[in-house]
Amino acid sequence: MNVIETSIPGLLIIEPRVFRDERGYFFESFSQRDFEAQVGEVHFVQDNESMSQRGVIRGLHFQRPPYTQTKLVRVVSGSVLDIAVDIRVGSPTYGQHVAVLLSGENQRQFFVPKGFAHGFAVLSDIAVFQYKCDEFYHPEADGGIQLADPALDIDWQIPTDEAIRSQKDLTLPLLADLDNPFRY
């Protein structure tokens, strides 16, 4: 696998080695041994999958301590614009984000450590999105920030006023109003 650093330390793009022939392709979507050697030790405990239609934006979400999550995300089919925002108070990149195009074609993965809010916008007709987490889901620890926060200046490639969003996501606070538990 090839690990690509982004403009924010800790956020990593992972490109698996893909073997193609006349039958199609094969790749290891995750190897604990290779991951630990190139990224570090993370013990994933839960895999999740969602299916969404074009225009859906999910996020920006995180789990509060003590149930913070590191995620390894990828798209099985379709394409999404995946976003991670640094919400660690005191970080030199606080409030900044990285955007990565993930698709079934490019087979890239995005590593999002604790201290980042995460979300994605569906750019294809349908997208199947999978992610690994190093902590179980705890609804009482749900947190998030407004994906349309002007201070974040995120181009979701979909007008946010036309996006399909959950009721919960519409009520999330701006980053400036967040009771923020994350420290750098």
Quick recap:
This protein is mostly beta strands.
Features:
mainly beta, Jelly Rolls, six-stranded antiparallel beta sheet, five-stranded antiparallel beta sheet, 13 strands, globular
Write up what this structure looks like:
- 6% of the residues lie in helices and 40% in strands.
- The chain is mainly beta and 184 residues long.
- It has one domain: Jelly Rolls (Sandwich).
- A six-stranded antiparallel sheet has the order 1-2-10-7-12-5, with no helix packed on it.
- The two termini are 28 Å apart.
What topology does this entry show?
Layout: E1 2-5, E2 12-15, E3 19-21, E4 24-26, H1 32-38, E5 46-53, E6 57-63, E7 71-77, E8 79-86, E9 97-103, E10 109-112, E11 116-122, E12 126-133, E13 142-144, H2 167-170
Antiparallel strand pairs: 1-2, 2-10, 3-4, 5-12, 6-11, 6-13, 7-10, 7-12, 8-9, 8-11
